[in-house]
Specification:
By secondary structure, the protein is mainly beta. It contains no helices and ten strands.
Amino acid sequence: QVQFVESGGGLVQPGGSLRLSCEAPRTTLADYSIGWFRQAPGKEREGVSCITLDDGDGSVYYADSVRGRFIISSDNLKNTVHLQMTGLKPEDTAVYYCARGPKYGSICPTLTASGFNSWGQGTQVTVSS
């Protein structure tokens, strides 16, 4: 069973930046959508961003809470998807996960977690002064 691997989390002050990475073993990125999700203590898992690739072009989607601050991108040669996070806020504190979803349809644009699989173990992001 394919399981993704997240990395890059850590402790950062408000306003700071982090770059998360998602390694996607045995996955051709162009065949799927790749999503980032997060879960804070006591809260449900929520969608953060998603990317689909199509012959070099792609589509990206963001939750309203992170649009303009986070950027999702892919490195096809390394089979890795990144999430560049800037302007971090305390409310961004959570465990961040990446997962694989269908390339077409509404699962990626709507960041519907139940439509994704191959979840990793997550990486902790803590935003605090």
